[in-house]
Amino acid sequence: MSARQWFNVHSWAGLFVGALLFVTCLSGTLATLSHELEYLSDSQFRAISDSGDTDFAAIERTLNTHYPGAQVMYLARHKQDYLATEVQLKIQGSFRFVYVDGATGALLGEGPWARISRFLRNWHMTLSMGWTGKLIITSLSLLLVVLLVSSLYVYRQWWRHFLKRPAALTLCKRNSWSDWHKLLGLWSYWFILVMALTGLWYLVEHGLQTAKIDHYVAPPPAVTQLANQNEKSTRPPLTLSAAYQAAKQAFPSLDIRYISYPQHSHQAIQIRGYNDDILLRLRANKVYLHPATGAVLGIQKGEQLPLVPRLKDTADPLHFGNFAGLGTKLIWAFFGALMTFVSGAGVVMGWLRVRRKTSAIRWLGVSGVIAIALVLASVVATSMSFSVRNVPAQLFSPVLGVEK
């Protein structure tokens, strides 16, 4: 292909759904720091202590004191210890977030399902359009691959231009936008490649889930046997602190960050955490417990995962930069901002090139109009749905404030 043909391919890929690609980059950048934005917005999202130790007994006492009659759905402590520990409660058939200090159990506040992080994640991952939205978003990874490959042919001898000084950015001068588009594109190339590869994995994963093809580790046999019994337990559910102790004894090196209660007594409690693994999400390491007796039904270790499950549990930390503290999240947000600018600059350049020859509507074309319509619809859909959180009718979890 000639340089002109590569340029046409590059321009088409960038402008085909330019508005949607720009918004996806923007929402992803903001989603990377969504919990930090909440941290800045309200003190209830800020932990008091910077200790990495979690006092489950103290948290349990706080919940028993302040929320009698409620039930815990799950407890989660972030990888970043400056963030508050979150507890999801079922209170008289409704949902409530409770925020506590993980190290001391002190009550920090409470709130609904709707919050900044929920809005941004729903918007970024699926446009709040369910299966179709996820397919649209993950398919953008194909365009990223086209853009990455074609850019190497469009920008000849690109390796010589990492330190080239760009022209002063001027709104109506296409050459100035081009200089910045190329320079920031070069410096963020590695990051865009990571986004493209993880996006391709999400697309493949979406296909596997749609086709109902198993691609993750099956639950341990004891968990399946318990589910098949389908019998109601005559014993009360395990308390938070008891579940923690049982899991810690079974998996001593596990840094427990998550406890989830089941809906029924024939389903297992799941305990998740980190085990000094590299680039693995929380669910890679887990302990399954009998919800009434605390008996260990199985242990999953991230270091023992086969290739495909390993890829599945690596994609999220690599995509959002949540694997080595605030530092990597800031790096990901910075390069995400560069990627957003590169995407937006490409659209501006495309318009400046033809603005004297055609109207904006004709330049956008059908795909451009559809992309803008999708963006607007996604904002409306997310605004209307991100506050909705249904609670299960049944929950096999201790009733708080009741003497054991």
What does it look like?
- The structure is a single chain.
- With 404 residues, the protein is of the alpha+beta class.
- The chain has 3 domains: 3-36 and 120-212 and 319-385, no CATH class; 39-112, Nuclear Transport Factor 2, Chain: A (Roll); 221-305, Nuclear Transport Factor 2, Chain: A (Roll).
- 51% of the residues lie in helices and 12% in strands.
- The protein has an 8-stranded antiparallel sheet with strand order 4-3-2-1-5-6-7-8, sandwiched between helices.
- α6 runs antiparallel to α8 and α8 (189-210) packs across α11.
Q: What ranges have pLDDT less than 50 throughout 5 or more consecutive residues?
A: none
Distance between the termini: 75 Å
Strand count, sense and closure of the main sheet?
Answer: 8 strands, antiparallel
Query: What is the count of structural domains?
Result: 3
- How would you state the average pLDDT, rounded? 95
Please state the structural category: alpha+beta
Lateral arrangement of strands in the main beta sheet: 4-3-2-1-5-6-7-8
Give the radius of gyration: 24 Å
Protein name: PepSY domain-containing protein
Transmembrane segments: 12-33, 135-155, 183-204, 330-352, 364-386
InterPro entries: PepSY-ass_TM
Keywords: Membrane, Transmembrane, Transmembrane helix
